[in-house]
Amino acid sequence: MPAKTRDCCESDACEEARPPVRRRSSRGPLLEDAIPCSEYYPVSIDFERRSMSFVRIPRSTYKNSAFLVPRHTDMGRSLYSFNLDDLLLRNMSSPLQGARTHYILISAFCCSTLLARFLDEMANCLVLKEPALVAQLGMLRYRKSAMAAGEWESEWRQLAPVCLGLMNRAFQPEDIVIVKPSDIGNCIGDAILQHDPRSKAILLSVKLRTFILSVLKSDSRREWTRGRARFWKGAVDAFSPLAHAEVRQLDDARLAAYIWLMTNAFWRELRCGAAHSRVLELDGEEVSDQPGPTLERVMTFFDIPFTPQDVVRIVNSAATSKHSKHPDKQYDAATRRADLQDWERRFGDQADAAIEWASPIADELGLNDVTGPLAKEASSLAAGAI
Amino acid sequence: MGTPVTTSETTRAREPAEAEQRRPTRLSRFFPDVSSMRIQFEWRVAAMARRGVAMFEEVHEPGVCRFFGAGLDQFFTQEITSDFLNCLRRLGQARFRAGHASSPQVELYTAGCMRGLGCESTPARYRYVFVLGPRNGKSGVRITVSPSTSTRRFSFLPRFGWTHAIEACYGELIVHDAAHAFAVEPALCKSDSLLSATVLLSGHLW
After folding, report:
1. Residue B101: closest CA among chain A residues belongs to which residue?
2. Does the global pTM surpass 0.90?
3. How many domains would you assign to chain B?
């Protein structure tokens, strides 16, 4: 502190000061005010510094954003950081009781943003698209820690209810929250379903071939895939057939297959686990090809009250004719089908080779023992149909 | 990390071994930046007093307690707060296998303030108290720790078993079992000046 500080403190004015009786938060909200309020949206955990940071955003930002992360969305200039231990202690004393919250777990490139945009059109749905906190929670689960594995798992198990509790907050009491995490969220599916027995999860993916073609179509997606494969390889050794894969030697098509298999390995535990009745598998192609029936199926599964008119209104809304992540671009199901044919023509051979590589791994992971769009793919693999 | 201080502590125990086990932990040189922290406190108090801005909330229940409370971030920079909490976590991990530290509340006791013997309801295992003032007082604040499940409302009733009465001084940290009752008698002070008041930072470890 500068010398001037001392002068101030030794002044008469200071000595004459009497304790006032009102608390005022000069640098941001109080924890007790921020935590129950959806306007305070958590954006990051700094585990080393033991802090969690929030921004303040209105409901419209939730709706308009395709990615609820500061890198993609204007979330204002103020960041409010809290001691992570204060949040943990608060949650131990009085766990966050929030709205009914459901999750859409995704494989990536599976029309999930389109489905989220559809649900955004329902007045009683608060949709969180790719919240950073859920992804961070997933990454932290596999953090290389100085702690013993059991100790870290115990620490993570304290952190998870706080993060997931913050996802349960809504603006109105009648709101139903739909969280669509990025694909990293797949590794915490078990924690999501354990956290709140009311929660359900949709596993949204596309067939392996479509996934590979969707990756190969652009350089940015290829780059994303390489990074993701490196992350999963470094983080997870729980699935032995995948643990043996040398990702550095794989081409982009095989890396795409590797990620698709990783996703399905996580999902297999949800399909077979105790909470399997709260899990629904959905093919992403159906979201764009048959939006009406698919939306009805999703809302019925999530117990979202709706009328046939709601479905018609949503299917005829701008969401169907515009690109989900870039709403200024026209994009519809017909355009997507044409794109797929184009990708098939350009990258079909690479996709064939990658599927051949993935086939025995899918067998080892037991993916052909289950039903659903991904399982159909795995069954086809096993039968050599592709 | 400081060394335990045992002076000016009185212990009455039916079972000395048990009392010893439950004795609050005292560290006289726990936080190396205590002077900076105190200066930040004084600076903020002076600045807010000049502007006439209220900082404290009075907590007053007749016969039970009367003191003034405030949040930490009104007085201290994020850096020193973070250092303080990290010191607590390191201590907690090393001494109590408790690596989590909640942010303390700032408690201010002027003439006529006190806190009767009673427990707090918390899931945390330990409670800590750090003495940030008065800076120059020869005899510091008296903190009493006793096994109890009663509330402060019945603090006038006679107590049984051991009791630790600690004369804590500026810069000292006390850690005790959060299930135990505690009381605060501030240093004798006829003034209600903020700078000669007893200032405690109290929070939890687990």
Report:
1. A85
2. no
3. 1
